[in-house]
Specification:
2 copies of one chain form a homodimer.
Chain A (H helix, E strand, L loop, with lengths): L4 H8 L9 H8 L3 E5 L4 E3 L7 E7 L2 E7 L2 E8 L3 E3 L1 H6 L6 E4 L3 E7 H10 L1 H27 L2 H15 L5 E3 L4 H7 L4 H12 L3 E4 L2 E4 L2 H8 L32
Antiparallel strand pairs in A: 1-8, 2-7, 3-6, 3-8, 4-5, 4-7, 9-11, 10-11
Helix pairs in contact in A: 2-4, 4-5, 6-8, 6-9
Chain A binds a DNA duplex (30 and 30 nucleotides) through helix 8.
DNA sequence: CGTTTAGTTGAGCATGCTCAACGGTCGTGG
DNA sequence: CCACGACCGTTGAGCATGCTCAACTAAACG
């Protein structure tokens, strides 16, 4: 599928393409194409060689990994997010698998083109470095979240982050199925249920995908959100932390 | 302390400086200086603003993080490693604290200089991107290691990695105190002890810092090392995965 | 109207942590 | 030179967080 003008416009407004000049944009996007995938499509398996940078424009994608018959979710991505950028820069194999969770629309940019753009234009290359650095810091936040907090604390902070992002009202709508949310928070669906019940003490009530807060103060006392762990602007949109370097927070669209 | 020629030589042979031309090297290193720190010196606390890129030339450094009176180790670095590169690129605050474990020698490169070098020379900027991408992938490996393996499996794989790096003999010397090793592997010292005992079944015997293997095959059957998790060339030197992008494996010095 | 799937709840279990005690080693000071 | 103290490492007992397995409900879909 060729790239329509409207799509090109969307991509330009994204991430490291935003400030690129036209010539560099053309170089980096040379050979890029847009593709739609149904739900539950494997885009990439661990160990596959990576020829394209993926940019998720619609839908959602799970990044995961396995070993010895175990599997784990590393991130859930929502538009607009790039993924496997690091493998593209290093021309190496994927360390994570990528599977669509819903019907998704993905822009595929040839790795060669991206690397050429980076090597020809230092300003563009720097913007990619910023994106990579943002990904890195997102991973660090994710590790801290998992190593320093128990499952209830992770859920509480997730809810507060969602609340902030959905406008600070006293009711939010969970953007994922609960099973997906459980994977995102690093627990089983059973334990997510139990974590929600524990939070009923703190004024959290759940009805399907709707979550209401009757006492945010006491919830915050449990959650103790920290700017060194939680990224209230970009966290969930891309739990790997990718999506938008930290200085580009303001322009996020809604998850 | 000014930079001696011998030190400059060491730095040039490192990481993204290796292929930089002289002019770019001078730009990126402008204002850099070498500093020695005693053991247990805090170089950086979480939340501090980051003005320098740190390059560890001698000694060792622990990167950690805390929340609500809990603390955790994120990585142990050994020479030659850069750290907090991502924060430097984004001009943002540190997400991890850094503390010397031994007397250490560290090159401090002003962030301004590094960023200027990146923006003026695309090839240099690309090399920094490669370094960042290597860091990112190291973190991904680390997360997979922790989420997919239990503590005994992590130890078994650590031992096999050390063995490979120390020449494949049937005896190795642990490069860290056991308490440090425990932190590195994400467990308590008590559980490291127990993990070692569990591995005596698999032909692993310990005497102080010396570890001997009498049956590597059966140990490997338990450990199941994977190139998608373990980096037999760079892993321990820098558990955050940083240290040398994956294409620069061959030139690692010994840990 | 049956079947499937998401979610919840309970019981039991496992991995890993805390706390405490103990042994060995090393360095210091009497 | 020996005695003491500090610290590393080990071992045991008990506990907590989170997982597995199973049963059950409710809603969605044919």
């Amino acid at each position: 599928m060729p790239i329509k003008n409207t799509d090109a416009e969307r991509v330009r407004n994204v991430s490291f393409f935003r400030n690129a000049d036209d010539a560099t944009f053309d170089t980096a996007m040379n050979g890029a194409f847009l593709q739609r995938f149904p739900a539950n499509t494997t885009l990439l398996m661990e160990g596959d060689s990576v020829d394209f940078l993926y940019i998720l424009l619609e839908g959602s994608v799970e990044l995961g990994a396995g070993w010895k018959s175990k599997d784990t979710t590393l991130a859930i991505l929502r538009p607009v997010s790039t993924f496997i950028l690091a493998a593209v820069v290093l021309e190496s194999d994927a360390l994570m698998s990528a599977v669509t969770l819903e019907r998704s629309e993905i822009l595929m940019v040839p790795g060669d083109s991206l690397r050429r753009g980076m090597k020809e234009n230092a300003v563009f290359g720097f913007a990619v470095s910023e994106e990579l650095a943002g990904c890195y810091r997102g991973l660090v936040r994710s590790i801290k979240n998992h190593k320093l907090r128990d499952s209830t604390e992770r859920l509480a902070n997730y809810l507060l982050t969602q609340r902030a992002r959905q406008g600070g009202q006293d009711e939010i709508v969970l953007p994922h199925e609960k099973r997906v949310l459980a994977a995102l928070l690093g627990m089983t669906p059973e334990n997510l249920s139990r974590a929600f019940s524990k939070l009923s003490d703190k004024g959290v009530s759940v009805d399907g995908a709707r979550v209401a807060f009757s006492n945010v103060t006491v919830l915050e006392r449990l959650a103790r959100p920290s700017p060194l762990i939680d990224n209230h602007y970009a966290q969930d949109r891309n739990t790997l932390g990718k999506a938008y370097t930290e200085r580009q927070q303001g322009v996020l669209d809604q998850s």
